[in-house]
UniProtKB/TrEMBL annotation:
Domain DNA mismatch repair proteins mutS family: 255-444
Signal peptide positions (record): none
SMART domains cross-referenced by the UniProt entry: MUTSac
UniProt protein name: DNA mismatch repair proteins mutS family domain-containing protein
Pfam families, sorted: MutS_V
InterPro entries according to UniProt: DNA_mismatch_repair_MutS_C, DNA_mismatch_repair_MutS_sf, MutS, P-loop_NTPase
Keyword Endoplasmic reticulum: no
Length: 453
């Protein structure tokens, strides 16, 4: 079993999709080889839920971040080697017959297949030599990558590859050597070549992720066993937001709920998405947008941020919200250790029902101390009620500072429950009432004031 996040959660956090604008997968899409991209896709699809495995992978990424090496191949040239090695070989007789036939056709009909085969074998020899050099240039001694280095060195030390270094730089091979090398590379040492290719794919991912971490100044989270039941992220921010403000979030068994309030545009949704993304990436062993993070592994992550209605099913927005909360409740009731993010519960119904539902649902969820929750709402009275009889909540808000009639947002998490009520001020600043009453000039003036801030 791996760490789980369902489709709704992945879409809320904009995690999957290398070709999708501003997705987290695209942020890390720096692999050079097709195999490396496929391997990274697999990591995004199946995060880990074992602390030792997470820390092992994370330590390799961190090692390459510090090493600062470049991937020793281009995608185009490695594609030649990758396609050649995967095209299959055959017995020595089959390989010899095929090469001789291609040679004959080259002479008799100026066919290009013999020349192409020769080029593929020479390219593969060149890239294997380049990987050999890379392996032997790495620092000796114990490191998170040392086991893989030793595996590669062992493969290159195989007597069947004793000819490899001598053929470095070859551009054209005579027929007998071509037959011999083609047979060894695609048949005689097929398993060894597959192993080396997989090592190169992994190296591609290590260097790609490490490069993103270095450029973005991301850090690496430390995974703790599940029973520690803690999560701390310092200087946490959204990885796709430039010049983002960092915040500190801490959850533990004795305080497993963060109750978040604040005005619209104060940054609540962005903070919650930042948190969810960091949790997901941390379970992948990937770097996170924070100055420091450590966490107990969880079973999964669920969010309710952008829950759509479903006209085909006849679901209103409110009913879709209810079904989403029901899904999460079933997972929590199944005794799973989860991270749950609820942004503006029950905003699709009237204020009285939203108050009652948010209060009862939040209080009921919070009783499961093995799960961590971040719950936001505009209904600040819910927080006042929860604070009176719940001792496992951290009440926080994102402030709005008024510069005259103009709101300014600090994006800095503050202890307590907001008292900000600037909705009507913003409406008045936009001149909506003036527009309705025919005063469009006043609206334009107010917009000019806001845009200058």
């Amino acid at each position: 079993m791996s760490f789980f996040a369902d489709k709704q959660t992945l879409e809320d956090l904009n995690i999957p999709g290398r070709h999708k604008n501003n997705s987290i997968a695209r942020l890390f899409d720096a692999a050079v080889t097709a195999g490396g991209r496929k391997l990274m896709d697999g990591m995004f699809q199946q995060p880990l839920n074992n602390a030792d495995e997470i820390n092992k992978r994370s330590s390799i990424f961190q090692y390459f971040t510090g090493l600062g090496v470049a991937f020793p191949f281009t995608g185009e040239e490695f594609g030649v080697m990758e396609n050649y090695l995967s095209s299959g070989g055959g017995s020595i007789i089959t390989v010899a017959a095929g090469a001789i036939s291609k040679k004959f056709l080259q002479v008799a009909a100026q066919d290009k297949d013999y020349e192409l085969l020769n080029a593929e074998v020479c390219t593969t020899i060149e890239l294997l030599n380049r990987f050999y050099n890379f392996v032997n240039q790495q620092p000796t001694g114990q490191s998170p990558y040392s086991d893989q280095l030793e595996q590669a060195k062992s493969t290159f030390a195989d007597p069947k590859l004793s000819w490899l270094l001598a053929e470095r730089g070859a551009k054209q091979l005579p027929l007998l050597k071509l037959i011999k090398y083609d047979y060894l590379l695609r048949t005689g040492m097929n398993l060894q070549m597959q192993a080396l290719t997989q090592m190169i794919f992994r190296l591609d991912v290590y260097i790609a992720v490490a490069g993103v971490a270095a450029r973005k100044s991301f850090s690496y989270a430390r995974a703790l066993p599940k029973d520690a039941n803690v999560l701390t992220a310092t200087g946490l921010y959204h990885p796709a937001v430039e010049n983002a403000v960092g915040n500190t979030l801490t959850l533990q068994q004795q305080c497993n709920v963060i109750f978040l309030t604040g005005a619209n545009m104060a940054g609540k949704s962005t903070l919650m998405k930042s948190f969810g993304i960091a949790v997901y990436l941390a379970h992948m062993g990937f770097p996170v947008a924070a100055s420091h993070m450590e966490f107990s592994v969880k079973d999964g992550l669920y969010s309710s941020i952008n829950v759509p209605d479903n006209l085909d099913m006849g679901y209103s927005h409110f009913y879709a919200e209810v079904l989403r909360v029901k899904t999460v409740a079933q997972q929590v009731a199944a005794d799973k250790d989860l991270v749950v993010i609820f942004d503006e519960l029950f905003k699709g119904t009237n204020v009285k029902d939203a108050y009652d539902a948010t209060l009862s649902i939040t209080e009921a969820f919070s009783e499961n101390r093995n799960c961590f929750f971040i719950i936001s709402t505009h209904i600040i009275e819910v927080g006042d009620s929860l604070r009176k009889h719940c001792n496992n909540f951290r009440f926080t808000y994102l402030p709005t500072v008024m510069d005259g009639l103009i709101p300014r947002y600090t994006y800095t998490l503050t202890e307590g429950i907001t008292t900000d009520r600037q909705g009507m001020i913003i409406i008045e600043n936009e001149g909506i009432l003036d527009i309705i009453r025919g005063g469009e000039t006043a609206s334009a003036t107010n917009k000019t004031i806001i845009n200058k801030q």
